[in-house]
């Protein structure tokens, strides 16, 4: 059976590997900025698996460095993640 988003979040809760999510400062002559998503190999694999699990889920998942899911972020992260699967049926 495939891991659900909750399975992955629980399994990774005690890991020392964390993801960093920050908005990078806009450089001159750039029309749009960048979001930094950074981590070691284990942290990025966790995020990749979380995205794959969310692709099979309904609607959305939110984790944030200052809210639910904070244990998965570095202390200097200033953005959370909202993963949203469409179409979304909130009744399910």
Q: How many DSSP E strands?
A: 4
Order of helices and strands: HEEHEE
Total tally of structural domains: 1
| Largest sheet entry | 2 strands, antiparallel
Strand content of the residues, in percent?
15-25%
* Computed CA radius of gyration, to the nearest angstrom: 14 Å
Question: What would the principal axes of the Cα set say about the shape?
Answer: globular
Distance between the termini: 20 Å
Mean pLDDT: 92
Count the helices. How many?
Answer: 2
- Class from secondary-structure proportions: alpha+beta
Strand order in the largest sheet: 1-2
Share of helix among residues? 25-40%
Characteristics:
92 residues, alpha+beta, two-stranded antiparallel ribbon, globular, single chain
If you had to describe this structure to a student in words, what would you say it looks like?
The chain has a two-stranded antiparallel ribbon. A two-stranded antiparallel ribbon has the order 3-4. It has 92 residues and is an alpha+beta fold. It is built from two helices and four strands, in the order αββαββ. It is globular, with a radius of gyration of 14 Å. The longest helix is centred in the middle third of the chain and has 15 residues, at 41-55. It has helices at 5-12, 41-55; strands at 20-23, 35-38, 59-63, 81-85. The mean pLDDT is 92. The chain has one domain (5-85).
How does the SSE layout of this entry go?
Layout: H1 5-12, E1 20-23, E2 35-38, H2 41-55, E3 59-63, E4 81-85
Antiparallel strand pairs: 1-2, 3-4
Helix pairs in contact: 1-2
In short:
With 92 residues, the protein is of the alpha+beta class.
């Amino acid at each position: 059976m495939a891991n659900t988003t909750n399975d992955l979040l629980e399994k990774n809760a005690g890991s020392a590997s964390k993801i960093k999510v920050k908005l990078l400062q806009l450089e001159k002559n750039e029309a749009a900025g960048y979001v930094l998503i950074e981590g070691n190999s284990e942290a990025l694999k966790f995020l990749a698996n979380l995205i794959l699990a969310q692709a099979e889920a309904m609607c959305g998942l939110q984790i944030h460095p200052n809210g639910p899911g904070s244990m998965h972020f570095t202390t200097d992260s200033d953005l959370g993640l909202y993963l949203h699967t469409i179409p979304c049926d909130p009744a399910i």
